[in-house]
Amino acid sequence: MLVLVAPGQGAQTPGFLTPWLELPGAADRLAGWSDAIGLDLAHYGTQADADAIRDTSVAQPLLVAAGLLSAEALQTAVDRDGELFGAVAGHSVGEITAAAYAGVLTDEAALQFVRTRGLGMAEAAAVTQTGMSALLGGEPEDVVPHLEKLGLTPANVNGAGQIVAAGTAEQLAALAEDKPEGVRRVVPLQVAGAFHTHHMAPAVAELGKAAQHLDVDDPMLTYVSNADGKIVTTGAEVVARLVSQVSNPVRWDLCMETFKELGVTALIEACPGGTLTGLAKRALPGVKTLALKTPDDLDAARALIAEHSAAA
Predict the structure, then answer these.
(1) Domains assigned to the chain
(2) Is the peptide bond preceding residue 272 cis, with omega within 30 degrees of 0?
(3) pLDDT tens-digit series, residues 126-170
(4) What are the catalytic residues?
(5) What is the distance between the alpha carbons of residues 79 and 94, in angstroms, rounded to a whole number?
(6) Are 245 and 197 in contact (CB under 8 A)?
(7) Cβ proximity of 106 and 153 under 8 Å
(8) If residue 187 lies in a helix (H) or strand (E), which one and from where to where?
(9) What pLDDT sits at residue 311?
């Protein structure tokens, strides 16, 4: 089985959309989405600097747009009817990309929804100086109690020896000075808030209001939720989880456990790929991985699909 995964915030880099906009129709597609949400996605994806695209209200719609553009380019490159993937999942905001690819939301609705999410989370993050740091190494049974002792939340339990802590600047500074047993490094992340914690509660309320106006369909392929790694079969439940996950931890480790149970043999990560394939290489031995970074990766992705897709 082949699974498509979509990365979360922090995966973006300056200019990463530039080569994708050279594909036929891509610039027009992005321009339409930009008009729909009132944000110049082409500018931010091709010309803006790292600080500009670190802004939560920009980064989140930019990542969803990039993921959808790359998935559409892959579908065009393969040029075959039927589903290319047996399952789909997303990390944090990438779960909105996954929901759109699975047919739960239209692309435009997904972009409007993530625009609301990004603005709400940016506003919530502005209340207190907060952030996130990745802990490399250590065992969860040692790391999690240590974080809780410092008042931090294990906001992303990613598997493969990686947990992301979230909290106030003071709490993260204390963590840098007092690492849990077994942790090799503490790496501050390029995000502007303590996502997936109680600090994001105001954004949950805003997103809940926006969700009431969505037209929702049930997923057309196996949809793996990052809340607990469970398969979700109704569009209403997918959207409910998209709302609640803003202030709840991401359990990517459990998503990868579900991939194992499903018999996943290959994984492709949508643009800007790299983070989730890196985790999969360590946690899913034997599973082939490919990250879509530029359109130059489409040929290799097409070959992987030919080998692993159930519809091949």
Answers:
(1) 2-125+197-308 (3.40.366.10), 130-188 (3.30.70.250)
(2) yes
(3) 999 999 999 999 999 999 999 999 999 999 999 988 999 999 999
(4) 92, 196
(5) 24
(6) no
(7) no
(8) strand 183-188
(9) 45
Q: 104 is written with which tokens?
A: 């739960």
pLDDT beyond 50 at 312: no
Q: Which amino acid is at 195?
A: F
Distances (CA, A) of 89 to 12, 62, 144, 227, 262: 18, 18, 24, 11, 13
- Sheet with 183-188, side-by-side order of all strands: 153-159, 162-168, 130-137, 183-188
| Per-residue pLDDT tens over the stretch 240-254 | 999 999 999 999 999
CA distance 68 to 90: 12
Q: What is the pLDDT of residues 6-63, one digit of tens each?
A: 999 989 999 999 999 999 999 999 999 999 999 999 999 999 999 999 999 999 999 9
H or E segment at 87? strand 87-90
Whole-angstrom Cα distance, residue 235 to residue 219?
6
Whole-angstrom Cα distance, residue 146 to residue 104? 38
Measured over the CA atoms of residue 182, residue 176, residue 12 and residue 99, the dihedral's sign is: positive
Residue among 267, 261, 273 nearest 297 (CA): 273
CA distance 312 to 308: 7
Read off the tokens for 142.
């040692």
Q: Nearest 5 degrees, angle CA 199-CA 204-CA 209?
A: 155
Structure tokens at 123: 């506003």
Q: What amino acid is encoded at 157 in this protein? A: V
